Amino acid sequence: MPSNSDASSRLRRLFLAPSWLVLVSLMVAPLAIVLAYSLLTRSPYGSIGKPWSLDNYSRLADPLYLAIFLRSVWIAAAATLLCLLLGFPLALFISRSGERKNLYLTLVILPFWTSFLIRTYSWMFLLRDTGLINSILLRLGLIHQPLPLLYNYGAVLLGLVYGYLPFAVLPLYATLERLDPSLLEASADLGARPWQTLLRVTLPLAAPGFLAASVLIFIPCLGAYLTPDLLGGGKTVLIGNLINNQFTTARDWPFGSAASLVLMAIVLILLLLGLHRRGEALL
Amino acid sequence: MTRRDLLAASLALTGCARDRRPHLNVLNWSAYIAPDTVPKFEAAFGFRVRYSVYESNEEMFARVASGNSGWDIVFPSASFIPPMLAEDLLAPLDHRLLPNLANLDPAFERPVHDPQLHWSVPYMTGAAGIVYNRSLTPAPTAWANLWDEPLRGRITMLDDPTDVFGACLKRLGKSVNSEDPADLRAAARLAIAQKPLLRAYINAEVRDQLVSGDVLAAQMWATTSQQAIDESDRIAFVYPREGYPFYLDTTVILRESSRAELAHRFLDFLLRPDIAAANALASRTTTTDLAARKLLPAAFRDNPTLYPPPAIAALGELEIALRPETLRLRDRLWTEIKSA
Amino acid sequence: MKRLLALRWLPVYAAGAFAFLYLPLLVLAAFSFNSSKFTVWQGFSLRWYQAAFADTQLSEATANSLIIAFTATILSTAIGAACAYGLWKRTNRTLLGVVYLTLVTPEIVTGVSLLAFFEAFFRYLHARLGLHTVILAHIAFSVAYVVLVVLARLRTLDARLEEAALDLGATPWQAFREVTLPSILPAVVAAALLAFTVSFDDYVITSLVAGVGSETLPMVIYALARRGVNPVLNALSAMIFLGLGALVLISQALTRRAETPGADTK
């Protein structure tokens, strides 16, 4: 039935056309413009023009900016690691909860899909000097001076871990769920203690989940902007703040574009290196 | 959300609701006007004003820099007039449409950035000094006090390169407008030395922490400090004896505005003594309108934070525009301070 | 299997983890009912809710956020669902690649690139930033979520059902309308709800591409949060969390119903 399959492919093209239009004009073209800007030069007061040059990229090689990139990578890595450590036992628990699984999963997802901004604000509320944690500690007489909990890298790290913990639990849960229970039983039958089974069998088999989770957490943490801004007290600069600053305060779009593309390149290289499985576990 | 808003929202959704009355679009600093100023203007001239706020000159500049932003009036500080002129963003003013200009304080009639007031009208002025909790003894008198080791963790500075460099330069005995790279580098070193003592670089947010005594001393604008003083008698403000930078905020009409005449009326309206007085009183600021000052309550007009006596006012140095190279160096040094 | 339960601390740990996830939000909400401005409980009061409702800036921003989220959701759901259907039986690696690219692009990069794009074109078109640019930006980043949610559902369907309909003389459009669409509808609604929450919550991208008269609720919240802790913000947070939370729960329920093996074969 050639006519029908013609109609089918016409319908398919029709269905794909709007997404081509949207994604090319609102994702690909903007990135292309950023690429062009990163190769142009900024005029004294901020407008962009010729000559073409790689100047913006060589400026990034400055130890100052390299340190910012390194620090961002470090913080993102620390947040990822903490999320995995904290998330694995939770995923293990959920995968063994029988009928309540769905309830627990929903409980993990719920905060993630609700406002990130509000979740960050909730830590401002808890961590500040007159916040709940310090108030309680003072009331109990455990401390006499409020602890400086807010406005440091620790607070930023905490905010990131809080924000992205669900990203660790979901893919880990997905792999644990697919584990063949007979492997675990075999291990137990062979006399392995439960924690030995956990270390030698469960953990290695969950490796794909760890990989997917790492990618899902590391990428947004690397480009984080809100968390360092609100919880860092202006004393911390990460890549996200650097880029935002170039596009707003400093008005140096070409330099900000170059920084954006380097960030993008880091992300893509990591993806290509690490990602065999697709990031669909995200949903 | 009121029911009217919901209705407006749902109408706008269907794409048929648009208030077709002409708008004047005004972008001002947050909390820089009395709440009834805009309604009064709307009632007097029959136009709608769309009003929004910004938190820094840089943010404002970024928002209008395209020359096609939709805003008619903004409130740049004097130091931003030359760059905005260089980018061809400003419309010339027609003094015939500004009769109330006569009310201006003579001290601001010929500012260096715009001696003929051809592009800008002075609006408010102010400075950053030190706001502190009275439990701090001895009370601070100088920028140098913000480097005191015993105050570790209980000091904040403004999250703004102009103010931080201004304080550091004054501490070094230099001009706040110094263009000498060596001066700026020395100021940055000073700021980096101070950073371990700082709780944070934050702005108005510090107010509650000052009242509670968690922060003992902070670099702060006089106007924000006055708001804190109004709320709590535990707070005081001092102009540092090394001298201090002050800013002059102005009103300008953007070149892109297609409602220049109406915009002039708004500028003139802000110069009306009763309006200017109400704005200064409500926002706790220092008006440049001499006629308005006479209308202010004596207690407000004589308060030393907003209207310092001449001897102290003489310590102030107006922030003016820096060369682009200087700004670029300062931005790099600022990043260095922030990531130290 | 039984002996593995020797990891008996796991439930305790899980309880702790859930407390970590929820306590900050519960505390935040609890203090929205505090009559005092400070973090000391003084008594129950609704004054911060009254203050939130009385604030015209907040209500304007809420109206803007709703207009943006509704429009962006409707359009991105239609575009994304159509895209997923188009990719179902025969994938297109380039298009799917771009979909993934939008998901992995850091928010800040998406934001600045859209800003650069709009500014570059508007200079010639004499258009300006405003509600429409925010809506376009939101469509750009939420289409990918819709594609993935709907595609995941489509992959559980048996394509032979549609082919059978075609063999029986249905046009491809009829086959889509009558056979496939009904079974992916719950997933489409779930995707729409997610798109709505993502759009309603976005700050980083929105703040960069907003213009005259397009201030959104997250922008106001952010400005308030930068000025310090504020009980009105707590009240606002509690309301937003409840509202968006309800949407997420509905979305979850729909996804789950779609996933339970029912009428369609696997």
Model description:
The complex is a heterotrimer of chains A (283), B (340) and C (266). Chain A has 283 residues and is mainly α. Chain A has a single domain (57-282), classed as MetI-like (MetI-like fold), CATH 1.10.3720. Chain A is 74% helix and 1% strand. Chain A has a two-stranded antiparallel sheet. Chain B is of the alpha/beta class. Chain B folds into two domains: 17-125 and 248-307, D-Maltodextrin-Binding Protein, domain 2, CATH 3.40.190.10; 126-245 and 317-339, Periplasmic binding protein-like II (D-Maltodextrin-Binding Protein, domain 2). Chain B contains 14 helices and eleven strands. In chain B, strands 1, 2, 3, 4, 5, 6, 7, 8, 9, 10 and 11 form an eleven-stranded mixed sheet that branches. In chain B, β1, α2 (37-45) and β2 (48-54) form a beta-alpha-beta unit. In chain B, α6 (181-194) packs parallel to α14 (324-339). The longest helix of chain B is centred in the C-terminal third of the chain and has 16 residues, at 324-339. Chain C is mainly alpha-helical and 266 residues long. Chain C is 76% helix and 0% strand. Chain C is built from eleven helices and no strands. The chains are: A mainly alpha (283), B alpha/beta (340), C mainly alpha (266). The A-B interface holds A 44-47, 64-65, 67-68, 71, 128-130, 146, 148, 150-151, 233-237, 242, 245, 247-252 and B 56, 58-59, 61-62, 65, 83, 86-87, 153, 159, 195, 198-202, 208-209, 212, 214, 323-325, 328, 331-332, 335-336, 338-339.
Please name the defining characteristics of this protein.
heterotrimer; B: 340 residues; alpha/beta; D-Maltodextrin-Binding Protein, domain 2; C: 266 residues; mainly alpha; MetI-like fold; 76% helix
SSE topology sketch:
The complex is a heterotrimer of chains A (283), B (340) and C (266).
Chain A: H1 2-38, E1 41-42, E2 48-49, H2 55-60, H3 63-95, H4 101-113, H5 116-127, H6 132-139, H7 153-178, H8 181-189, H9 194-205, H10 207-222, H11 226-231, H12 239-247, H13 253-274
Antiparallel strand pairs in A: 1-2
Chain B: H1 3-13, E1 23-29, H2 37-45, E2 48-54, H3 57-64, E3 73-74, H4 81-86, E4 121-133, E5 155-157, H5 161-171, H6 181-194, E6 198-201, H7 206-211, E7 217-221, H8 222-231, E8 235-238, E9 244-253, H9 260-271, H10 273-283, E10 286-287, H11 290-295, H12 298-301, H13 310-313, E11 316-318, H14 324-339
Parallel strand pairs in B: 1-2, 1-3, 5-6, 5-7, 9-11
Antiparallel strand pairs in B: 3-9, 4-7, 4-8, 4-9, 4-10
Chain C: H1 10-31, H2 47-54, H3 56-88, H4 93-104, H5 107-125, H6 131-154, H7 159-167, H8 172-201, H9 204-209, H10 217-226, H11 231-259
